[in-house]
Amino acid sequence: MGISGVGGRAKGAMADPNIVPLIDILLVLIIVFMVVTPLTPLGLDALVPQPPPPDQEPQVDPSRTIVIQIECANPTCGRTSLKINQKDVTWETLGFELEQIFKTRAEKVAFVKGADELEFVEVARAIDIAKGAGVDKIGLITAKVEAGE
Fold first, then answer.
1. CA distance 142 to 86
2. What confidence tens digit (pLDDT) does each residue in 134-148 have?
3. Residue 136 located in a structural domain
4. Residue 23 lies in a domain
5. Residue 33 has what DSSP assignment?
6. H helix runs in the chain, sequence order
7. Model confidence pLDDT, tens digit, residues 50-77
8. Do the domain assignments include residue 110?
9. How many angstroms separate the first and last alpha carbons of the chain?
10. Of 82, 116, 110, nearest to 98 (Cα)?
């Protein structure tokens, strides 16, 4: 509906949109958000490790960390040798040794460290045996990780 101009003659319908319903909807949305906002949680509970106090020495138990080392036994890396925390093992006894280590532990984490010239299939084989022995989490140690980079 248009407003008639001077003299009472209508110039046609106005094409301006009616914004009153739009404002009504926006006000309802504002009220909804004002009601819902106090009900949302303020934060997430995250378990973040806290650094030890500066005057206390960090207590690291080296026997808790299990590292499976795969080394080349000869220069062409045709044969490999295995170690679990500096203890020599074979491919056949690796699974049994890991089962013995982790059967009493709640946290079943191991790390695999392979020589640079080693093919990944050997590392994958060690990971597969460790998973079969019940290890939940397996990390890979690289040269950059050892250097602290």
1. 17
2. 888 888 887 765 555
3. yes
4. no
5. H
6. 20-36, 91-102, 120-132, 143-147
7. 676 777 665 656 567 889 998 887 766 7
8. yes
9. 73
10. 110
